[in-house]
TrEMBL record:
One of its GO terms (biological process) is hypoxanthine transport. This is Solute carrier family 43 member 3. PANTHER family: EQUILIBRATIVE NUCLEOBASE TRANSPORTER 1, SOLUTE CARRIER FAMILY 43 MEMBER 3-RELATED. The keyword Protein biosynthesis does not apply. Keywords: Membrane, Transmembrane, Transmembrane helix. Pfam families: MFS_1. Its main location: membrane.
Amino acid sequence: MAGRGLYVATLLTGLLECLGFAGVVFGWVSLVFVFKAEHYFKELCEPNAGLLGNATEQAAEVCKAQDQRFSLIFTVASFMNNFMTFPTGYIFDRFKTTVARLIAISLYTSATLIIAFTSASSAVLLYLAMPLLSVGGILFLITNLQIGNLFGKHRSTIITLYNGAFDSSSAVFLIIKLLYEQGISLRASFIFISVCSTWHVTRTFVLMPRGHIPYPLPPNYSYGLCSGNCPTKQEKTAEPENRELQSKEFLSPKEEIPGPGQQQKPRSFWSYVLSRRFAWHLLWLSVIQLYHYLFIGTLNSLLTSLAGGDRAIVSTYTNAFAITQFFGVLCAPWNGLLMDKLKQKYQKEAKRTGSSTSMVALRSAVPSLTLTSLLCLGFTVCASVPVLPLQYATFILQVVSRSFLYGSNATFLTLAFPSEHFGKLFGLVMALSAIVSLFQFPIFTLIKGPLQNDPFYVNMMLILATLLTFVHPFLVYLECRLPKGSPSAVA
């Protein structure tokens, strides 16, 4: 297999990998349902002999400690999913694709085997297994995002498609839940997932490069089986030329016109990290992501409360939530398609007006960033209304918002900063946003404790914080309207 056929095979198998494995940790609400059926942390729900109220209210009250334990596990796992993207992004940049993928496979397989052989008596091992699962999954995503470079003008569409597949993979835990209800044990399901690691290994050596996929793509670029038998000459010779093109693409308008006899110096990684552009993007991602994580981590508890402890109703809404997650892979590409079309349109305008190439690329991200904030605002408002049927609308808005969030994040980083820093910048922004995501556990504890299960004030604060995220696309829009020769806000 060579040429275009190899590229298509890489694209499709990468999509399958992200869809089936990368983001399964975010199907946590389905897995919690199974863990509760298996009596994980059930010892925390011992009935209180002095409590004489309604039986349903008693169960909801006494099992608060169990819910907090599951919430804490998800908090740790989601934190590690983001925080570890910085060191794993560095590993990907420094040691390249093969090493990064072998590490991902090792972590992922260890996690699935631990879950397979845990029981109610060893439930504490979930604190180890779920973070390993999330870190392995995000490494799968990072190594696959570069596949967008193979398809030129469709790059943003493919990046967002992969992020959508990452979101949709949370439906895998729904499948495990449904199989469990049909008599298939949790152990059997996770052993099967562990065996699938042989497919990951095969794909690593057959359909992925040893190094990085360059952008722009050089003519007759090849990888995979050839890289095991011949030197990666094309990759090495292409890199200096590509990096020179990339560094020119991401210069500010002022930097694009060096003075006579001046040598243009490449900007350092930390100069981008300390820029206003990066800071506002970090705030934008952190706020929106925090509410998504809080919602996923507390959904089982929320549904139990709204359903009055009725297990059948909780199961129905849990299934509905997980099913909507699957459609993230269908929602995300529309975001990338929008950005690709806008970029092509603005490039045509730039040829007529002589606009900066970097600003043309960046301008195409503004509608995506704005739309993501708007979707999150709608999701936050719906989730704040304690009406059970309305949660169907919440589920739909949540999956669309989340699929746009991570697609917009990855694509913005590729458009706003040089691609040789992508792994590090992607990892750093996810790592720093992970620190903010840790607030989900104290927020959950605050709701369950001092606020007596009434999240009204917390929801109002989160709605206000979501409104703040609109500042980021507004500033990017203003930056793109700067006249040629003006200092760029990236500095």
